[in-house]
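tokens incoming
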């Protein structure tokens, strides 16, 4: 359903995540914060779509709730919330955003960029839910996986909605995003980060 070309190797969970839980959970907390910040940025920059703006406001709240849930987990486990780090994967996906064209075209790019991050995050959560040995965390990631799948759907739906009276082919552009993502994801799945 997500259309991702390459799955994450469970090696990442077994050999990287399990041994570096504090780093992964801390990184995860900031992934949720960045998702909230990104939703707010779309909300602020495209006021000509008030329905989308409201939806982004609700999404930002949901992502901040996820942030709180992750921090809570860190505390429950007696771990320490670390500092925010650069997300190299997200920065590489960001390079693919086209910044030229109409406001609609730019908004569609931003929605597809967000859909891409949600799709890969959802896939990573699924791999975590399936392979992590801690049952409580497995349940936690299963729940979050469902949310991120819904967010992916939301962004794709809005990209198509905005594209309605344009000649932008969202399906075609989404395929290009998937191809690009496949070309970079092979370098990842090795580090103690959600997209690492
Ligand atoms: Fe989230
Ligand atoms: Fe999300």
């Amino acid at each position: 359903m997500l259309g991702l070309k390459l799955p994450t190797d469970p090696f990442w969970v077994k050999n990287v995540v399990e041994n570096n839980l504090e780093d992964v959970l801390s990184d995860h907390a900031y992934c949720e914060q960045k998702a909230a910040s990104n939703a707010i940025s779309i909300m602020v920059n495209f006021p000509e779509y008030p329905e989308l703006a409201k939806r982004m406001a609700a999404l930002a709240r949901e992502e901040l709730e996820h942030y709180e849930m992750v921090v809570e987990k860190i505390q429950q486990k007696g771990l320490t919330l670390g500092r925010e780090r650069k997300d190299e994967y997200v920065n590489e996906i960001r390079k693919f955003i086209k910044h030229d064209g109409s406001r609609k075209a730019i908004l569609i790019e931003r929605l597809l960029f967000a859909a891409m991050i949600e799709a890969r995050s959802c896939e990573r959560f699924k791999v975590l839910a399936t392979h992590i040995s801690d049952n409580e965390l497995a349940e936690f990631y299963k729940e979050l996986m469902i949310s991120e799948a819904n967010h992916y759907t939301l962004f794709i739906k809005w990209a198509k909605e905005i594209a309605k009276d344009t000649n932008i082919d969202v399906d075609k552009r989404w395929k290009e995003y998937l191809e690009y993502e496949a070309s970079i994801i092979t370098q990842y799945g090795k580090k103690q980060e959600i997209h690492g």
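note: Residues 35, 63, 118, 148, 151 surround fe (ii) ion (ligand 2) (CB under 6 Å).
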